[in-house]
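Hello again,

I reread your note about wanting to compare the complex against the isolated chains. To keep things tidy I'm splitting this into two emails, and this first one only covers the full assembly. Below are the input lines as submitted, including protein chains and any nucleic acid or small-molecule components. They are followed by the predicted structure of everything together. The single-chain runs will come separately.
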Amino acid sequence: MNILSSVPSEYLGLSSALAVLVLLTEFAMLRVQFSRSQVKLYAIQSAIVTVLAVFIAVERDIPGLFIVAIISLILKVIAIPKIVMRLLDQTKVELVSSHRISVPSMILLALLLGAVGMFVIDRLPFHSHSLPTSGLSVSMAVILVSFLLVIFRSDVVSQAVGFFSLENGVSMASLVVAAGLPLVVETAFFFDLLVAVVVFGVLMRVHHQRTSTLSTEGLNRLRG
Amino acid sequence: MSLILTSMCILPLLASVLILILPPVIGKSLSLISSAITLILTVTLVSHGGVVESLYGWLRVDSLSLVFILTVSLLYFLTVLFSIGYVRESRNRWTNTKYAKIFFSGINFFCWAMLMAPSVSSLALVWVAIEITTVISALLVALDDTDGASEAAWKYVLIASMGLGIALFATILLYYAGASVLGNTYDLYFPQLLTVAHKLSPVIVRLAFVLAVVGFGTKVGFVPVHTWLPDAHSEAPTPVSTLLSGALLAVSFYAIMRYFQVAIVATGPAFPRNVLLAFGLASLALAALYLASQRDLKRLLAYSSIEHMGILAIGMSFSAPIAVIGVLLHVLAHALAKGSAFFGAGTLVKKFGTKNINRIRAGVSRLPVSGPLFVLSILALSAFPPFGIFRSEFLIVLGGFKSNASFVTIVLVLLITVAFLGFSRHGNQVMFSPPLEGGDVTKGEVSYWMTTAMVLALLGLVVLGIHPPQQVSTLLTAAARELSVKR
Amino acid sequence: MKIDVSVIQLLQVATVLCLSPLVSGIVTKIESRLQGRTGSRILQPYYDLYKLFKKETLVTQDSGIVFYLGPFVAFTCYLIVPMLIPVLTNFPLPLGYTGDILGGGFILALAGFAVALAAIDSKGPFAQLGSSRAMTFGALIEPAILFVTFTVALITSTDLPYAEAATIRSSFTQVIRPSHLLAMSAFFLVVLNDTGRIPVETHASTIEFGMIDEARTIEFSGPIFAIAKWGSFMKQMILYVILMNVFTVPWGLAGTKTVVSVLEAIAVLMLKAIAIGFLFALIDNSFSKLRLFKVTELTATAFLISVLAVLALFVGGG
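Full-complex prediction:
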């Protein structure tokens, strides 16, 4: 096999390692027990994505990415975790979030799903000048695992964090295939994320006020 | 013309902000003025026709976008009319409170976002606009502040945002496909992308298209990603349900149409059509079956929306241009029909104080005007002549036979019939069965604002059904031409 | 002055044999210092062994020959493994190629098996409980070990520990490639599990219900216990050596056959062992023990990371 002899260069190796780290934090979010740790993990994940953006900006000389990195630092590493943490402070209930299935089976499932996603994307003809295209496979895995996070954890914090980390996966994908994405568009995405966060926060609060819990187990009245 | 486009894209936003900062009393009148002017501006754009650009090319409407802009502004106007009655009727809770303020501000903002989505020229901004519609409408769904509303809002914002996350991925993939032809500096400007569509990598466009259909399809309400839709539609305040069903689903479908437009050139027409066919059949079949077993009046209408979105998708899968004309007409007609049906349902719910179908009886005799109008709306939704949906579904079926897709077309007609059976059974029970012991209500209309909105919507439907205005026909034909493969 | 390779070969075994109690003593010392205690002397393990060798062996009536043999079989196994792994040199010694990672793994597993059998033969309920638990978790961690081996095999085209260490030394790009980093972390978790540290087991506690590895030797006494204890010191050191000299920091090994470089290598090895012991002690003090049924979460994590390592090799950028 050819992969045996092909050692990635320093740049590619480091950036892939960062990408894999993002995936690992996603898995950690899936299995971690406390909502707070989950939010912290999200902040860490965003920080890694930010570092990745800076890294690419320096190495591949794409100055626009610096601004993206700054916005992402302010918004995703600081603001969003802070908003969610404040909510958690105010609610003071149920800091442990619940799983619908056991942690090991969830991880195995996520692994399977992630592997499928990675191999599927790997078959596609992508060429990127900013990052190894393997980053795209990894972001696909992040996206798929974030879906599991939303599906199998039944509390509003996990579900919201699942959505935010889905966005991290997409951000990483955009670093791979669309590093030169015009700034206006990129900024629009970020602005949108901010709006989404505010609304998530409002709805989480509404949910908490009505049910005085953060669990979504009770959300089963509407069906059919 | 570009000035008109610009002002159309500013006005509702302005109204929304003004309502929020000015005293609550002006909410209704300001909304009415804003929606009426928007409608007039849209009609001007429609009669002018052709491509209009504005704001250095950030705004751009062609015939296809105009169809959707027209849909949104019509429903915007009608909903504001209805809302005035709706809000007045629940005087104790709504009027002159901060709720009314938020309500009208939200409605304007929501409509602004829905108007923006077809007006912007970049596919990235289309995504942004649709995400904004999600967040603002989620807040509006939660506005009623009941357990059901907060549950529905949470499900809605979560599922729709996850779906839009997928759509964002699709957007980025499409950018990548375009960037490898056009260079890194282009910003997903749509016409630019379309001119090079034949050079794009088919594999990647294929992936982007499927992801876009799944992603935006979540907001359209395609089965199996429709699960938020019945909840949100049933728990939201009725005017919001109307906008969700008639305008929001259509606007999300608009995004899919844009991807479709690129995909049929880049990957050949067969693939995108088959994808839409699969989602369309699934949606239509499931909705047709679920319609029969509903217990909630607004959920009934929500499933009917899924049914009609399925019809749209199936219509797009036919290759004959006449089917596409039918689809576009269907968007317009469905908005009016669903608008009037929701208005009727809202009136019934207000009158009887429940959404449970089994507890609403003898609507025709208790609501002397809007009762019969609701019956007409249900008939219109079931594609009875002389209403617009009859004409549009007829065109779609005709297109199906012309595209040698007879089997699919027959299935389509059968499923529509099944849906009609379930739909009419419930409609019949609500309107004509004898009143319930002890659950009877007094005779009389709830509000004539609400009735007026219904009458106007049904009038529009009749016009579309009998003889659409020349300008509308021209618009639909031009839009269908833009969606055809040859270029 | 040069020494013969066979002497170095023996020296590898001797290093592990003689220094493993010291490593254990150092780790215990660091641990107690981190907890604010003075702790026992770092030579305490040697005194313990000496004391035990002097004592008599008590055996229950029901025990058979397996009870006596088990610790010795395990001890022998632990003497064999250092021949296969790069303890002191970065060039392969004569016996270095007689067994690959899997071979070493089998021998370690045989040792575990022998101890487990002996524990069962002791007929003590806690010992039996401990061996059943140890075997269960051993089986659960096995997939992770396998996938780490696969990763090594795919990177180096062999699965010799020497080759893996040499590959890592060859260039910085080998160190930072994601598959290597992942395999390394997975193996770290494996070591955590196999040496019976927190979060799997409170190794210093006397609460029988939470015991896994410790419980197995609970019925031993006298010289047999000394052998078993010494064996577990050696096992810990062997795992540390594999973790350091194969996966993490395969630097500082003797490159030539001179006495100085070999002595240097021993010194560096001790420093590395102290460093890693510090890391383990830190983990010991920062986390709480997992409930027994939650240990599967740790093994699942190790499995996850090791599978990701293989995936990263194919589709994750090397």
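For quick reference: Strands of chain B lie at 52-54, 59-61.

B.
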